[in-house]
Amino acid sequence: MGPTLPIMKRRHLIQATAAAAAGAIALSDDAAGAIASSDDASAQAAGRTALGGRRRVHVVLFDGVEELDFAAPLQVLGIAGRFGAPIEITLVAVDGPRTIRASHGTEIKVDGAWAPGTADMILVPGGGTGRDADKPGVAAEIRRGTIPAALRAVRRPGLVMASVCTGALLLGAAGLVRGRPCTTHHGAKDLLAEQGGKVINGPGAGSPGPRVVDDGDLLTSAGITSGLELALWFVERTYGSEMSMNVEMVLEYERRGLVYRSR
């Protein structure tokens, strides 16, 4: 794969490409798919500005959930909604409306009922390392089994399953990553591989892995802050690069790292 463009030039490239209606920047292939920088991926979608349809996103919360894991994508999707993207966000708890106590003590009142049949995407944040089942978080929820069972039961065509950080382990416990390209926090990749996931690493020894792995109806992202990249990528692939750039400008943030798109 050739050198990528400096991040600070990305918006100028996208705007120029869109104005000229230029073709997409080609991505390099490997045996399983293509790895592109988020800069290249944005440029690839530059000509796509028409809004997609309504997307109803359900965010699954549980005791011990990492605050930033769900707050970052919630912020991104909410801002996109203000720009006209028809996104509906609902916070849900699998075992019914209640107050959730997050990893750092934040209490969140969850009023949304578990109604996955009304969702277009279910987003599962992480919480903890996935190894200590005696503390609230992903490992405890895997041992309890309620969330994995609920996720396993709702899989259907057209429903996107997404995760941030160790939330991928809950998808793995539900059997949803087996044999599929995916990622999670670098400290939990071995656990995700044990669940049968095809964990995507960097293109060379010591290279950072992708921030987002897009396998169509399975979207996974790496460590805690990668929820920003996951949500921005979702906005771009659904509503176009101009929409995602507008959100980035409000956040004063520019996407970084790699997006892996499977074939």
TrEMBL record:
Database matches in Gene3D superfamilies: 3.40.50.880
Domain DJ-1/PfpI: 55-236
InterPro entries: Class_I_gatase-like, DJ-1/PfpI, INH-QAR, TAT_signal
Organism domain of life: Bacteria
Descriptive protein name: DJ-1/PfpI family protein
